[in-house]
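User: Please predict the structure of the protein below. I'd like the answer in structure-token form so I can feed it into my own downstream comparison script.

Assistant: Understood. Taking the following sequence of 749 residues as input:
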Amino acid sequence: MHLRLQQLLPEQSPLLQLPTLLDQTLQQQLLKQQRQPLSSSSLGHFWGTRKLAEKKMYRCRQVVSQCSSTIKSNLGHGRQRYAGESTTKRFGSDHGYSKTPAIKPPTLNEMPTPKGSWATEHSRQQSKYNMHLAAGLGFTAFTLFVGYQSGSFYLNYGPDVKNTKVSVLSHEQVRERAAAAAASAVVAEESDPEVLAAGVEETAPVEAVVVEDASPEAAEEVAPPVVEEVTPVAVPDAEAVAEPSRDQTGPSDQSEVAPSVVAIVGDLPVHIPYLLIGAGTSSFAAFRAIKSRDPKAKVLVIGEENHLPYMRPPLSKELWFSDDPEVSNKLKFKQWNGKERSLFFEQDEFYCSPVELVAKENGGVSVVRGHRVVKLDIVGRKAELDDGRTITYDKCLIATGGKPKSLPSLSSAPANVQDHVTLFRNIDDFRRLESISRQVKSITIIGGGFLGSELACALGRRAKTSGLEVLQVFPEDGNMGKVLPKYLSQWTTEKVKGEGVQVLPGTHVEGATMDDDKVVLTLQDGQKIKTDHVVVAVGLDANTDLAVASGLEIDPTFGGYRVNAELEARSNVWVAGDAACFYDIKLGRRRVEHHDHAVVSGRLAGENMTGAGKPYWHQSMFWSDLGPHVGYEAIGIVDSSLETMAVFAKSTAADTPKAVVEATGEGVRSETENAATEQSSMKESNKLHAPVQGEHYGKGIVFYTRSDIVVGMVLWNVFNKIPVARRILKEGLTTDKLAEAAKLFDLHE
């Protein structure tokens, strides 16, 4: 503004002092407002200053009014730009200058322009940018050079692959080298009296393997691990090194706890960060979760069976429908879509030996087969094995599963009778029964639940081509009578009979004897059955052998170890799978014996062992297939003693277990649930009504209610709708809304 006045007015014009006058007045006013507190005296001073400013502004206005309209317009524009709208608010409108004058926009001649052409200006800016870039690169290069010369860092060119000789030892070669080293170590120990004189405490002698860190390139040049039979003093020393801190709560930090010298008791480590008792589905899910959260974790799994972790459902389903005579040896099966799959979760190469585990820098998973843990010292964090060896741990999971039940009439029978009885549960039972079914003429299955009905249908299919006689005996009115409502159970029994099975419902076995190398079963009604072999499939008891010796609580109603919401039974001890009795926030305390529950609870326990602290809220599902054409999925509490309501529709070729596997490529139904959706087209479905004689139950939904609230559901030949059922249970749907709920399943799609 000052420059503009100099261009328009003479040098001695009083208007040249106008911007300076306005500036000084406003600045003095603002400074005084900021410095002085708000009091009566300051308010008076403020109003006095305002009056003085008004007088000066009024005098300026009179001077400006004498100028031309162009000068007044420019001065008004400068006043507004300098003081803004607040000028009008400060000084009021009683003097007539509060009205904002018209602002004259600047012309092109008044706008600033660069010196020279635009190309010249761009070239100058680009040169400046290039100079800065070159300076930055030069400084970076200088920093790297100084750091390299001073040894602050170095360049790793990698190994010489062409001149490096790699030797991979198998587990057998490792054991052979360890045994040879042990023999030489014993001789050296006998010739060294100082070792024997070092004993302090009297404990049983154990073996220790000392493994020193070595690079992979020098693996061949380093001597094999030294195995020594140490004196009693070595045991407390090794345990003192491996003893975990009592206040440790999170995942173990391998970089802090991994020593350069590690101890081995026989072929087991003295200490392990994660100990999993049981080598089933829950343990598999647990160590997968542990490794995902703690990649360098070292996990040791101890199982009674002589097999690596495997899935159990195919033992009573797909394996029996294989045409390969070597199926019991290969343990590979074809899913309903024809895709071949192994029974084992992982190949042998996935696991390492316990000797290798302790020396692995990045951790790993090792499975000890053919042993069981007989006692846990919860306070001392020690596990005692059946052969007397002990292992200390940081975190422990109990996933011992269940033990198959037997009948009193069979468990008390003579030994020659029990030789012809199979309590079906694991791979060895499958191999034995599969071999027997090809040699004998008759097999009797006792039990009408999931396992018994699946085995009956599987063996019945084989009976159609081999002439095998298959009988099924159970006390209920129909197959799966404890789960399905009576009308659906009886309809299922007719389906089982159609598979070639002689079904004897409503009776049970009271005695068993031998006659001409055949088992004679005496039934409740006095009827006697002669059979070559008996298969018992009447349920499971939770394997709680550790409870008494370890001081763990057993649920008196449901059995199994009582755990909290995080599946923790005691400090640093978790339980998952069939052996866990957990509290369901919707359905109360429960114990579930199904594959999906084993996967979900094992995964959650593994996450909590690494410090996740998550509660168990998942509503697990289970499924059963009576061959490739009839199957169902269920969730919640499904008990035939509860009131049920159901809706059914005519099934199609797409409503079978075989069809859903062909569509998803996955035979494990809890995995196909991932492809399911909660969306529904809300099509009209059948209305709820009482069962009608002769009605066809092709596909449908069965609602189980308690106190007029849905607590369980069976999806009969309806697949990939478990998310919808889970949402219904979560919302606590009442019986008056079931007709609308049935529409969510699109039975007429």
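That's the full token string. The CA atoms of residues 127 and 133 lie 10 Å apart.
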